[in-house]
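The data are quoted verbatim here:
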Amino acid sequence: MGSHWTCCTPRQHKGIERSDLFSDSEWDSLYSRAEKLFKKNDDAFDDSVRQRLVRRVLTEAYPDREMKSMPLACKRKEGNKEYVEWSCTATILGELSTPEYFYKGGERLFDIRPNTQCDKLEVDAQGKIHWAVINDLENNKEYYIEAKKYVVCAGAVLTPGILYKSGLEGKLPKLGHYLTEQPMARSRQTLTNALLSIFADQFGMPQPIFNFILDEEAEERCKRMITDMIDVARKLGGFLPGAEPKYLAPGSALHICGTYRAGSTSADSVVNKNGKAWGVNDLVLGGCDVIPTQNACNPTLTAACFALAAADKIIEELHVDQ
C-alpha cells in the first residue's frame, strides 16, 4: 500500500466480516485502542455543504437504510477548523518519534534504515530463527540481525515471499492460501514451487503468481454491488466523463487480505490470533493479511487490532514495561 491511505477506519461488521478469534469484549477493547491511536473521527466533515447534501438526498431516497459518515483517521486543528490533520505514523507515535526516546542508557532502542531489504530469515529444523539476512541496497552489502523477536509486516505479497525464501513453506503449509480481495469474496493464491524456483524479481525475491477464480455467489454479489452503486449514484447526478461505472482490475482496492491469516490451528492458518507463526519460534507477522475473514470494509483498523494484540503478547513474553 506504500504511502497511500484514505484514512477510512470503520470497524468490521459482526456476523458478516468480523472473526471470532477474539470475544466481543476483546474486539471492543482493541478497536477502542486503535481508534484512539488513529484519532478516529465520525464528524470531521459534517459541516461540509457537499456532505450534508449527499446525506440528505440519500436519506430521502433510501429511508430504509441508515446513512452514516465514514469514520476517518483525522482531526481538525484547534483555532483553524478549515485545516484537517490526517493521521499517520508521526501522529500515532507523537512525542515517541522524537530522538530523545531513541536511546536508553546510551543504548539505541529504535532505528529506521532506508534502502534496506530483509532478504530472508535463517531458520533451523526445530523452528528457531538464528538471524535475519539484511541487504544494504545502497552499498550492496549483506549483514545479519539477531533479535529476541522477529516481526515481519511486509504486506500481502512480500511477507509470504520472505517466509517462502526462508524455507518455511513446510512449517507453514497454508502460507499464501485463503487470499481475499475486494470486491472478490474468497479465492486462493498458491505459491507454485516450480514457478518460484525459476522466476525472481529484481531484488531476488520469489515472483508471486496469483491463481484465483470468483465463485457463483461472489459473481452474483458483484452484480448486485454495481447495480446498487449505479442506482445510488443516479440519485446524486450524472457520471463524470471517463468515470462511468465499471469493474476495476483485481487488486485495485489495495485491500488484499488472508495470505498469512490468523486462526486456531495450522491446518487452516499461518499465525494465531496474536500473530505468532505456527511452528516457528519468536516469529510474529502483522498487517492486513492476518485478517482471516471476508472483508468488505477498509481493513486498516482491524489490522491494527491484531497488531495491538501481538504487541501486548510480545511485551508480556519479553517481560518489559510498556
